[in-house]
Structures are given as structure tokens and as C-alpha cells.
Design a protein that fits this description.
Blueprint (H helix, E strand, L loop, with lengths): L4 E4 L6 H4 L18 H7 L5 H13 L4 E4 L4 H9 L1 H18 L5
Parallel strand pairs: 1-2
Helix pairs in contact: 4-5
Length: about 110
């Protein structure tokens, strides 16, 4: 038996609009209470879920141990592996900026 780990980038799913489901913990960075679509779309377009699934299936067929998809997420993954403290600091600053600048009117 073989095992693969999937490290997804930003994938087009309802979690971007609604946030985490109630049975999962809140996002560690606490980006935006109502989801993070606005922040994500400022960075780039989310990867389509169907293309993500095909990428993962192809990688499993090739017996890849670590699957990073889409390929644009590789740099972020590598930075997190090499410099977790720096990435955490950047994430906190981004979350603070997002809360201040992307607040949704109630």
C-alpha cells in the first residue's frame, strides 16, 4: 500500500464564500468571518475543483508521495517548509490587513 499527501493551493470551493464548516476549527489566521473570496481574488483566481481532482488523480497514478496542486502553489509550499516562522508572520500581517481593509458591512 502507498500513501500520498495532498497539499492544495486555493481551490474553487464553497469554503471561499462561507468559511470552514462548523465541524472544523476556524481558519488559523481568522482572515474574514464570511469567507475569504475577496482576499483570494485579489491574489489570483482560484483553481477549478475539477482540474484539481484530475491533477491529483494523475499524481496518484504516478505514485507521487507529495502532491502539490496547482503547480502555482509549489513556491508557497516550499517557503512554508523552509521558513515556517516567516510565512506565519506574513500570514498574520495579511490577516490584520484583510480585517482592516476588507471588512464586510453588516
Amino acid at each position: 500500500m502507498r500513501v500520498s499527501v495532498i497539499c492544495p493551493g486555493v481551490i474553487e470551493t464553497p469554503i471561499l464564500d462561507k468559511g470552514n464548516p462548523p465541524d472544523l476549527p476556524p481558519l488559523a489566521s481568522g482572515m474574514l468571518a464570511g469567507g475569504s473570496r475577496e482576499l483570494v481574488t485579489r491574489v489570483g483566481r482560484p483553481y477549478p475543483a475539477d482540474r484539481f481532482a484530475l491533477d491529483v488523480l494523475r499524481a496518484v497514478e504516478r505514485n507521487r508521495a507529495v502532491i502539490i496542486a496547482p503547480s502555482s502553489a509549489r513556491l508557497q509550499w516550499l517557503m512554508q517548509r523552509l521558513m515556517p516562522g516567516v510565512v506565519e508572520k506574513i500570514t498574520r500581517r495579511t490577516a490584520t490587513w484583510a480585517r482592516a481593509n476588507l471588512a464586510r458591512p453588516e
